Amino acid sequence: MKKMNILTAILFAFVAAIICGALFGSAIEVVKPLGDLFLRLIQFIIVPLVLASLVVGVASTGDPKKLGRIGGKTIVYYLGTTLIAITIGLTIAIILSPGGGVDIPQQVEAPEPRETEGFIQTLLNIIPTNPLAALAEGAILQIIFFAICLGLGITLVGERANPVYHFFDGLAEIMYRLTGIVMVLAPIGVFGLVAPVVGQHGLSVLLPLLKVIVAVGLACLLHVLITYSILVKTLGKMSPLKFLKGIAPAGIVAFSTTSSAGTLPVTIKNARENLGVSHSTSSFVLPLGATINMDGTAIYQGVAVIFIAQFFGLELTFTQLLTIVLTATFASIGTAGVPGAGLIMLTMVLTSVNMPLEGIVLIAGIDRILDMFRTSVNVVGDASAAVVVDASEQRYAGQYADGQDQGMTG
């Protein structure tokens, strides 16, 4: 392991987990504590890392207008790529027809669909009534709001708030170092997370729904290789190969943990060290993306809806397809911070076109497998946004500097 770089070690552990899971079946559950340990260490880092890095990032910016500019670009980017993602998911599902001729014994009990509180209430919930409770509960959106307010407060107070700024700056550096230490355990953690999943599900569950898995996997791959690569190349001025290689460790950890928030420390580390994203941009764009960016989940919605429609023999009109696209796109923001976001989004989408909610049970057995694909795409999408927004801010800073120089010359 010492002779391998971290990406090679994680890939090696990932392949080994698949092989061992297939060979030993449910007996491989014995390695699950290794995965749980790694996941707990990652979760242990998240809250102080997000709080400290975002406070420092906002205080370093020192300009509310810049924050508004970055926030606007980030939201537009996330909504735009989600729109593309759901379209790709629908297209691939229509081409592959995953629900045609499928006969599934419904042995899995349908999970209870939970309703979202709605877009407006979600926005109101961003403001914590008790910031300390938000920190204790790990409410990422509320922590982001609290951190932004602290950072702006430090900027407005000025020199007297320097001790507070230095405290958070030191805390941020400590958390970056701890993230590096935890990442050494990533290959062991990935093995402990993936092997039990492979051992538990096996081919008996996967075979009848193999076309669904292939459709989601293919759509996710196309979204990453085409959408993100083009955006990173044209808007981010970065080689797609460099981007994909740089964010690959975070993508694999996301695949293993199925948690965008849980992968956040690794995403921030990769974006800064491998992709060269500034601290101020990564501190804002990535925590926000881990909470509201759901490109992978949007792809899953597209495939799942077409699969359910084909299974029940329903014909979807163009208007219904358009409704699915719009509902899934805006639901990606409306379900932010709610547990089981994928299930909630699917419930909302099915309801929007009057499709049977019983369809959720059909893919419940492979939801964990599909969650791996969609979470990886979500994380890669977060990183692509950070690269694009950071490049845009650098161009803006360059144009502003040129304008000032011309004004002085005039």
What does this structure look like?
It comes from Caldalkalibacillus uzonensis. The chain crosses the membrane at residues 37-62, 74-96, 139-157, 178-199, 205-231, 344-366. Its main location: membrane. This protein is mainly α and 410 residues long. It has a single domain (6-24, 35-102, 111-403), classed as Orthogonal Bundle (Proton glutamate symport protein), CATH 1.10.3860. 77% of the residues lie in helices and 0% in strands. It contains 16 helices and no strands. It has helices spanning 6-24, 32-61, 64-96, 119-125, 131-137, 140-157, 162-183, 186-206, 210-234, 240-257, 260-273, 279-292, 295-311, 318-334, 341-352, 367-409. Helix 2 crosses helix 12 (279-292) and helix 11 runs antiparallel to helix 12 (279-292). The longest helix has 43 residues, at 367-409. The N and C termini lie far apart (60 Å).
Stated plainly, the CATH topology is called Proton glutamate symport protein
Mean pLDDT figure: 80
Approximately how much helix is present in the residues?
over 70%
Number of strands: 0
Low-confidence stretches: 105-114
Main β-sheet description? none
Number of helices: 16
Shape category: globular
What's the architecture in CATH terms?
Orthogonal Bundle
Helix/sheet category: mainly alpha
Please state roughly what percent of the residues sit in beta strands, choosing from under 5%, 5-15%, 15-25%, 25-35%, 35-45% or over 45%: under 5%
**How many structural domains does the protein architecture include?**
1
Measure the end-to-end span: 60 Å
Cα gyration radius (Å): 22 Å
CATH superfamily: Sodium:dicarboxylate symporter
- The SSE string, one letter per element, is HHHHHHHHHHHHHHHH
What is the CATH C level class, in words?
Mainly Alpha
Pfam family, one: SDF
Membrane topology: Multi-pass membrane protein
Transmembrane segments: 37-62, 74-96, 139-157, 178-199, 205-231, 344-366
Protein name: Na+/H+-dicarboxylate symporter
